[in-house]
Automatic annotation (TrEMBL):
Protein name: Sulfatase
Occurrences of domain Sulfatase N-terminal (ranges): 3-341
Residue runs in coiled coils: none
InterPro entries: Alkaline_phosphatase_core_sf, GAG_Ulvan_Degrading_Sulfatases, Sulfatase_N
SUPFAM superfamilies assigned: Alkaline phosphatase-like
Superkingdom assignment: Archaea
Lineage: Archaea, Methanobacteriati, Methanobacteriota, Stenosarchaea group, Halobacteria
Provenance organism: Halopelagius longus
Pfam families the UniProt entry points to: Sulfatase
Length: 471
């Protein structure tokens, strides 16, 4: 058996990668990996946020196929569901996960099948997802108020926006306890675990450095930005206001380069250990990040920063189109240009390491074979389940159908033909191919039919998630 490594990078846009044609040198390590492996140029995330996307990555389930904790957007895996770790563990792999996003909690069953499961953010702050919960949990009121005021005062006639100044001071004080864990520590922990493994491993790591707020020191370490802390926080305040923030966008690019440097450390060490050549290595993202594409920044679902419309959630390509590079054992270069779902990673793993395909929730309809010949037989479906309802998007080479969140009619659905210029000019859904409309209809679910998992989010967890924009 061969080692299997899965790296998911939080909030990484496809079009910010060098191998995708980006103008800045953000991803030299990923560029080299793309040249050595198979690049999926139209990989789509299962959902627009970590909570909705990672279940698809590790268990092939869309949001509507899962359960939830407290509210619909806090997706949890159903008890005893099939996962990559459970499947690979049953055929002899040692399974380990070294993570850093507080969404990925054992209380939400993201640890299913793992022999070792460690989340650095939870380990540092405590696993505050508990069975009892805290019905009076309030979260971070200071940050919530600051966000709301920044968005209301971005047109202030004052020469210096007072709320922006307060936001900068807040971030400066927060440096001692930053919301995201340094990817260097996560990679160090992963490498230590792998080095002591006695059997082939399935190792999953999730890097959260690109998730806002960006740590200024890591931004500078990326080498594309040298601005000081106050300058970066001032630019970040503009992001929170949803006003054009080119300084923040450059900081994002520099953080992409920092994350790429951590991936280089992983690749280098695996080569030194003699594991690289025969390993299956997969690098992808749980979702992208909106860069003011439609007047907003981020991907967050909180009430004061939700990217969505009155009748649907925000599932455009800036959040769903993600990088996906697969280096199979022994190497095999090429590109797959068909739309591919991250829900189908289990098929790519099975085909790459010559295992029978597992019994997972979602499949592509493709025949087993070489990765370069991977050809899905059905549209890619992504979804989001929130208090507004169930939004579904279906993608194929013929275009994209984007639904409203209710269950009643398709009269408000949109169709975006291929090469639509960033999905800015919707057509009538009557122009959409039947297979796309049928895929959406088939996936639509009544939110009341999705079961609640018996756990709740207490005050500490709410505060930590709010720092990252999830509330």
């Amino acid at each position: 058996m061969t080692d299997v490594f899965l790296v998911t990078v939080d909030s990484l846009r496809y079009d910010r990668c060098g191998f995708a044609g980006y103008r800045y040198d953000t991803t030299p390590t990923l560029d080299a990996l793309a040249a050595e492996g198979v690049t999926f140029t139209r990989a789509m995330a299962p959902g627009p946020r970590t909570s909705e996307s990672v279940p698809g990555i590790i268990s092939s389930r869309l949001s509507a196929d899962c359960g939830y904790i407290d509210e619909e957007s806090y997706t949890a895996l159903p008890h005893d569901t099939e996962t990559l770790a459970k499947w690979l563990g049953e055929v002899g792999y040692e399974t380990l996960a070294i993570l850093s996003n507080p969404q990925l909690s054992p209380a939400r069953n993201f640890d299913y099948g793992f022999d070792t499961f460690r989340n650095h953010r939870i380990n540092e702050q405590g696993d505050r997802f508990t069975d009892a919960g805290d019905a009076t949990a309030g979260g971070n009121d200071v940050l919530d108020t600051a966000r709301a005021l920044l968005q209301r005062l971005n047109d202030s006639p004052l020469p210096l926006n007072p709320t922006r100044v307060a936001y900068v001071v807040y971030r400066l004080r927060q440096l001692a306890d930053w919301p995201t864990v340094d990817g260097a520590a996560v990679i160090d922990d992963l490498l230590s675990e792998v080095e002591h493994a006695d059997t082939p491993v399935f190792a999953w790591t999730h890097l959260n450095d690109l998730h806002t707020p960006l740590h200024p020191e890591r931004v500078r370490a990326g080498g594309l930005v040298d601005a000081g802390n106050m300058r970066q926080f001032w630019d970040d305040a503009k992001r929170v206001e949803h006003t054009p923030a080119p300084g923040y966008e450059r900081a994002y690019d520099s953080m992409v380069r920092y994350v790429d440097t951590q991936l280089d450390r992983l690749v280098t060490r695996l080569k030194e250990q003699g594991r690289w050549d025969d390993a299956l290595v997969i690098v992808t993202a749980d979702h992208g990040e909106s860069m003011h594409d439609r007047g907003y920044y981020g991907h967050h679902a909180g009430a004061n920063q939700r990217l969505c419309y009155s009748d649907r959630d925000y599932l455009h390509h800036d959040l769903l189109h993600v990088p996906l590079i697969v280096k199979p054992p022994g190497g095999a270069s090429g590109a797959v240009t068909e739309p591919v779902s991250l829900c189908w990673l289990h098929e790519l793993i099975a085909d790459a390491v010559s295992l029978p395909r597992g019994d997972f929730q979602n499949t592509s309809g493709s025949d087993p074979g070489p990765l370069t010949a991977y050809e899905p037989a059905q549209p890619v479906v992504s979804d989001s389940l929130t208090d507004r309802g169930h939004t579904v998007v279906a993608h194929s080479p013929a275009g994209t159908v984007y639904t409203n969140a209710d269950q009643s009619t398709d009269s408000g659905w949109w169709f975006f033909p291929p090469n639509n210029g960033g999905e800015h000019s919707p057509h009538s859904v009557k122009d959409a191919p039947d297979e796309l409309r049928a895929a959406c209809q088939s996936a639509k679910t009544d939110p009341e039919a999705v079961p609640e998992v018996s756990a709740q989010i207490d005050a500490g967890a709410r505060s930590r998630l709010q720092e990252l924009g999830y509330l």
